[in-house]
Design goal:
This protein is an alpha/beta fold. Helix content is 43%, strand content 17%. An eight-stranded parallel β-barrel has the order 1-2-3-4-5-6-7-9, surrounded by six helices. Helix 3 crosses helix 5 and helix 7 packs parallel to helix 8. The protein starts with a strand and ends with a helix. It comes from Chryseobacterium candidae. This is LLM class flavin-dependent oxidoreductase. InterPro entries: Bact_Lucif_Oxidored, Luciferase-like_dom, Luciferase-like_sf. It holds the Pfam family Bac_luciferase.
Length: 305
């Protein structure tokens, strides 16, 4: 069965920051009501006056607190900027308050602003991002997975001690890092909208082999998600794809009807054997976003009602 989730980057036209946060919470509540299984929030440090948030951790806690069962997470946390200790403590605590509902998506990106890099991790100015990401990833996993050692040898605790860790996702624009996911026991999400017109470097057989090797190595089934960006408003789609606004935020947005979007989801499902999708609706208003949720619910979940 196909499962659908939602991705939100906290943009709502000309609304102010606090109005956008209210709308994010409403949007998440409606996604839960319409049967969507997860709600992910991106991390972006954009120099625009009405940016609603930067790091999504506070918004994740608000959304989780205002919903009942939907999974809530980051997509993704720019861990090269952040303290591994802070990431581990915040996400484990949240995942035990909102029991097994919090997900941590890991992304390699960095902010556009040199000043933001100076304030968060000035190594980003001189050291390749890949090297910093790998170091931070290993540190986070070490904090999550070694409670007894960390208490005894490092005199630190990630609360609650012995608690349940969040589901961790490796976020990518391709399937090039499947070996890393196996080695580090990470779920895998591929964005189809980072980079225009590219063909994903995987087949159903390759992904089935990946699932088998992952299960043998880690003793569990890996989760795989494809993320799709779309808009039912042509003018908004063109604006979102404008590389002159913020180069790192230029996306390949499908300007499409909900019916045609459902066909694309089915095609991806058949071609890659992937059952889970996270959808980024770039529509400017909450009303349109929620209407699109309702239409998708009718197509994919009507038989369950």
């Amino acid at each position: 069965m196909i499962k659908l989730g939602v991705l939100d980057f906290g943009r709502r036209g000309d609304l102010n920051s606090l109005e956008i946060i209210e709308q994010i919470i409403t949007y998440a509540s409606q996604a839960e009501e319409f049967g969507f299984n997860r709600f992910w929030l991106g991390e972006h440090h954009l120099p625009i006056p009405n940016v609603s948030y930067t790091n999504p951790e506070i918004i994740i806690s608000l959304v989780a607190g205002m919903t009942e069962s939907i999974l809530v997470g980051s997509a993704g946390s720019l861990i090269s900027m952040h303290s591994p200790y802070t990431v581990a403590t915040n996400f484990r605590l949240l995942n035990n308050i909102y029991y097994k509902r919090i997900e941590l998506g890991l992304a390699k990106g960095a902010p556009e602003s040199v000043k933001v890099m100076e304030l968060t991790n000035d190594k980003l100015l001189t050291i390749p991002q890949n090297e910093i990401f790998e170091e931070k990833l290993n540190a986070i996993l070490g904090l999550f997975n070694n409670d007894e050692y960390n208490l005894k040898e490092n005199k630190l605790v990630i609360p609650p001690y012995g608690g349940v860790n969040p589901e961790i996702w490796y976020l990518s624009s391709d399937f090039k890092y499947l070996d890393l996911a196996i080695a580090k026991n990470l779920n895998y999400c591929v964005s189809t909208f980072h980079g225009a017109g590219k063909k994903l470097s995987a087949t159903k057989d390759k992904l089935n082999d990946f699932k088998t090797v992952f299960s043998e190595k880690n003793g569990r089934e890996v989760k795989i998600v494809l993320s799709i960006a779309f808009c039912t408003d042509n003018s908004q789609a063109l604006q979102d794809q404008n590389p002159n606004q913020h180069p790192s935020e230029s996306f390949n947005i499908l300007n499409i009807t909900i019916e045609n979007l459902s066909h694309i989801i089915e095609e991806y499902h058949d071609e890659y054997g992937v059952d889970e999708f996270v959808l980024y609706d770039t529509s400017a208003t909450n009303e349109t976003k929620i209407l699109n949720l309702k239409k998708l619910n009718t197509i994919f979940y009507s038989d369950e009602k």
